[in-house]
Amino acid sequence: MANATRRADLAVVGGGVVGLAHAYAAAKRGLKVALFERHGRARGASVRNFGLIWPIGQPPGAMHELALRSRELWLEALEAARLPYLATGSLHAAYRDDEEAVTREFAELGRDLGYDCRWLPPAEALIKSPALVTKHLRGALWSPVELTVDPRLVIARLPGFLAERYGVELRYGCAVHSIALPAIETGGGRWETERVVVCGGDDFETLYPGVFSEAGLTRCKLQMLRTPRQPNGWQLGPALAGGLTLRYYPTFEACASLPALRKRIAGETPEFDKWGIHVMLSQTAQGEVTIGDSHEYGLEVDIFDKPEIDRLILGYLRGMARLPDETIAERWHGVYAKHASQPFFAAAPEAGVRLISVTGGIGMTLAFGLGEKTMAEMLDQ
Ligand SMILES: Cc1cc2nc3c(=O)[nH]c(=O)nc-3n(C[C@H](O)[C@H](O)[C@H](O)COP(=O)(O)OP(=O)(O)OC[C@H]3O[C@@H](n4cnc5c(N)ncnc54)[C@H](O)[C@@H]3O)c2cc1C
Fold it and tell me: Which of 12, 221, 364, when mutated, tests ligand 1's pocket best, judged by the most ligand atoms within 8 Å of its CB?
C-alpha cells in the first residue's frame, strides 16, 4: 500500500501559486499529481504579494493574451474552490501633465491593442474610487479587467481543493532533493513519476543549479505594508496605481509620451528610481489595504528592511490616496526571481522535466495561463 502512494504521473515541486496552477492544469487533464512543498505551508512570494491579477501590466500581444487566459482560469478555479475574490478593475491615477499624457495616450492606443480601458475625467474617477486625493487629480485610466484575491487565503486553501476535487497528493514539509527520472528523492523518501515540473520560485540552488546560474537569473526584493481592516466596510474599489507605475509595466512602452514622464521622475525624485519604488494599493476581501512597493535587485537579498523605503512609499501615497484608517499594521518583504528581459523562465533540462519560474512581479497574473501552457507542451507533443 505504501508503494502505491509513492507513484505519480506528474510531480510538482513548489506549493506557491505557480506550482498550484500547474497541479491544477495537470489534474484537470486526468493526471495523478503529487505536489511537494518544502515548508509546512507556502511562505514565498505567493503569500507576500498584492493579490493582483493584473493583465493591464502585460505588453500587447502574446503576454497580454496569456494574462487574459490566465485570468479566465483563475476565475474558473476560484469559483470551483468557492474562494473569494474582488472583480475590482484598476485605476492608474494621473496627477501631473505627463501622467495625464501617458494615460490619455494609452486609453486611445490600448483599444486597438486589445485592452479594455478608457480615460476617466476627475469626477468619474472619484466616483470609481473614494480613496483618490482630489487635489491636482487630472483623471485616470480605468480598466475593468483586473481581479484582486487575498493571496494568503487562496494559497492556503487551493491545495485542499486540489486534493478533494482531483485527488492531488499533497506533501508539505517535504523538499525534493534530486531528480533522476523515473525517481525523485524527497525528504519523505523516494517517489516514482513520469514527469516533473519544478516551480521553486527563487530557489536556484537546490535543483538544476547549473541551469539556473547559466540562465542569468537574479532576485528582486520588495517592501510591503498593510493597514488593518478598514472601518465600516469601507471599500477601496478598483486597485490603485499612480504615475510611478506607468514607468514600471512594459504595457506603457507603447506611449510616445512615456520618456518625458521617466525623465521628469528621474530628475525630480531620483530616490524613487534608486529604490525602484512605485505605489499600488489593493484591498483584501476582509478589508485590509495592502500598500507597496520597492525593487532591489541582486542574488544576495538584504535581510533587513529599510525604513526610508517605507517612508517614501507612504509619502507618495498621501498625494494619491487617503484611507479611513492609515495605521500600518504589518510590514514585510517578499522576493521573486528576476531576469533582465524575460517575463518567465522555462527550461527542459532533460526529458520529462520542466523548470518554470516567473521572472518578474507577475506570477499571480500569469500562473494559471502558464500552468495550462506547460501541460499542453508536455502532454500534447
Ligand atoms: C511583494 C510582492 C508583490 C507582488 N505582487 C504581485 C501581484 O500583485 N500580482 C502578480 O501577478 N504578481 C505579484 N508578485 C509576483 C508573484 O508573487 C510571484 O511571481 C509568484 O508568487 C511566484 O510564484 P512561485 O510559485 O513561482 O514562487 P513562490 O511563491 O516563491 O513558491 C515557490 C515554492 O517552492 C518551494 N520550493 C522551492 N524549492 C523546493 C524544493 N526543492 N522542494 C520543495 N519545495 C520547494 C518554496 O518553498 C516555495 O514555497 C509579487 C511578488 C512580491 C514578492
Answer: 364
Segments of the chain assigned to CATH 3.50.50.60: 4-47+152-215+342-379
pLDDT at 2 > cutoff 50:
no
Q: What is the mean pLDDT of the chain?
A: 96
Main-chain phi, psi angles of 360, to 5 degrees: -175, 175
Residue with the nearest Cα to atom 26 of ligand 1?
201
Question: What residue has cell string 509620451?
Answer: 257
Ligand 1 neighbours, Cβ below 6 Å, are 13-19, 36-39, 42, 44-46, 48-52, 54, 175-176, 199-203, 206-207, 222, 224, 292-293, 334-336, 357-358, 361-365
Q: How far is CA 56 from the centre of its chain?
A: 13
Q: What is the mean pLDDT of residues 273-300?
A: 96
Q: In this structure, which topology does domain 90-144+218-338 adopt according to CATH? A: D-Amino Acid Oxidase; Chain A, domain 2 (3.30.9)
Per-residue pLDDT reduced to its tens digit, 52-99: 999 999 999 999 999 999 999 999 999 999 999 999 999 999 999 999
In the chain, pLDDT over 70 holds for what percent of residues? 99
Domain 4-47+152-215+342-379 matching CATH 3.50.50.60: the answer reads yes
Q: Where in the chain is the domain with CATH 3.30.9.10?
A: 90-144+218-338
Contact 231, 361 (CB under 8 A): no
CB atoms within 10 A of CB 264: 15
